[in-house]
Amino acid sequence: MVDNSHILPLNADVALDELAANAVAIGLPMNTTFRNTTLREVMLIKGPIGWAEFSPFPEYGPQESARWLSATIEAGWHGWPEPLRNAVPVNATVPAVPVDDVAAVLARFGPVPAVKVKVAEDDLATDIARVQRVHELLPDADIRIDANTGYTHEQAVEVITALPFLRYAEQPVPGIEPLARLRAALRAAGSSVLIAADEAVRKETDPLAVAQAEAADLIVVKVQPLGGVRRALSIVEQAGLDAVVSSALDSSVGIAAGVALAAALPHLEHACGLATAALFATEPATPALPTNGALTPGPAPVPDPEVLEQLKLPADRQRWWHKRLATAHGVLMQNA
Ligand SMILES: [Mg+2]
């Protein structure tokens, strides 16, 4: 069992009426398919200090959604801690494209300090060739792979040992124990490639469990699933591991919270996965696109009322989101 007694409570100090009166559910058209959809639905809520996002993925239940709502309340009603740095380096992402397309994908990002390469959607030789191509094109970039739990132990060992220049491998295998076993096997084989836990970190006790099991060298953290910037900060501190802040496919309103977290971490070793705004074809607010490979901390961008209206979901989806908001709020109140 992990000791979670020091984790900050969820934010539960705003009435449902106030949240609901200022909330609108919108659909963001995407340039690519993600989680089997080309429309990312999010709820944006205007709080007294700024706009906030509530966007748990559709299949997430009330307990999980309550943590996302805690982050919404922080963003719109409390604000974030002061930044410790004014630039947050971000990584480019290369999807599981054919090797010949890698150069064109990278060209879209401009200069970046790091590249995440998606793997485990093809055969291993193709995965290895794609990553080698990135290394060839950007020899100075930090390269990490993300398998989204898609490898077996043996496959992960084969790919990672074939790519000794990798900085880290993100969730090559599912779960915490398999990660720990893989990390130990790589160390025994003399590999210096680090292991990152992503899918294994979904709730507040997970980072502590990852650290306790020595399953990873770093953890991927997202603001909404961990209940807010302050809460995520305290969780990272208690886990005692390096962290990479990533988006949960947030709109640029939610990205501002991710940048606030990355800017407030006492130690930021790796570029963050916050350059996801390029995945959306349209956004109501100024998209959080990197300049010189970095994003700048600041308040959430303010949506344009006209675009907000254009992107507004139909009445049945508004009802569905408002019901979800009410359910998540109910859970927050019970836990408070
Ligand atoms: Mg990942």
UniProtKB/TrEMBL annotation:
Catalytic activity: (1R,6R)-6-hydroxy-2-succinyl-cyclohexa-2,4-diene-1-carboxylate = 2-succinylbenzoate + H2O
InterPro entries the record matches: Enolase-like_C_sf (IPR036849), Enolase-like_N (IPR029017), Enolase_C-like (IPR029065), Mandelate_racemase_C (IPR013342), OSB_synthase_MenC1 (IPR010196)
Binding site for Mg(2+): 146, 170, 198
EC number(s) stated in the UniProt entry for this protein: 4.2.1.113
Pathway(s) served: Quinol/quinone metabolism; menaquinone biosynthesis; Quinol/quinone metabolism; 1,4-dihydroxy-2-naphthoate biosynthesis; 1,4-dihydroxy-2-naphthoate from chorismate: step 4/7
Function: Converts 2-succinyl-6-hydroxy-2,4-cyclohexadiene-1-carboxylate (SHCHC) to 2-succinylbenzoate (OSB).
Name of the protein in its database record: o-succinylbenzoate synthase
Lineage per the UniProt record: Bacteria, Bacillati, Actinomycetota, Actinomycetes, Micrococcales
Gene this chain is encoded by: menC
